[in-house]
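Supplementary Methods. Inverse-folding protocol.

Structures were first reduced to a discrete structure-token string of length 165. This string, shown here, constituted the complete conditioning input.
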């Protein structure tokens, strides 16, 4: 009987360990509440969805076409893109909590002397990731680029989402 109890306990422990190893693991930034993960580990047997770079939708149809005013500032464009990403994910049975990586391309904002508007990026980003409503944080890269394919575009975001099979 003792042998059976010991074997049952070992089997339960092994099952718990193997099921934990099959989870998507998000490694937090040390000593930080910043809304990104330092790294994300995606185990084998996980479906990945690669989402091409998304650009903002028109924000102000009265503004001159192809102007920054037509698509809004960095925060407005980020919000537009993340809402669009949310729709793409939902069409595939996923949500923002399934995003494991984001790449953000930022054009220097003429209103900021040609520098990228990181504060504007964060303003648009934080309601979507690392919040009480959606606490999961992807790994993220943000870089400044010279231009985007959308005249008036300040932000382009591509994503990778993961779902356990």
């Amino acid at each position: 009987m003792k042998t059976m109890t010991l074997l049952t306990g070992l089997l339960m422990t092994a099952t718990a360990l193997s099921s934990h190893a099959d989870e998507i693991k998000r490694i937090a930034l040390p000593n930080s509440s910043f809304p990104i993960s330092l790294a994300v580990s995606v185990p084998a047997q996980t479906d990945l969805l690669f989402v091409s770079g998304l650009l903002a939708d028109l924000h102000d149809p009265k503004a001159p076409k192809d102007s920054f005013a037509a698509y809004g500032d960095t925060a407005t464009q980020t919000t537009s893109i993340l809402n669009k990403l949310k729709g793409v994910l939902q069409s595939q049975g996923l949500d923002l909590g399934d995003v494991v990586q984001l790449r953000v391309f930022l054009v220097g904002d003429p209103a900021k002397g040609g520098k990228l508007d990181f504060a504007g990026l964060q303003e648009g980003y934080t309601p979507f990731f690392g919040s009480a409503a959606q606490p999961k944080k992807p790994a993220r890269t943000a870089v400044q680029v010279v231009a985007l394919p959308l005249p008036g575009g300040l932000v382009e975001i591509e994503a990778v989402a993961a779902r356990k099979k």
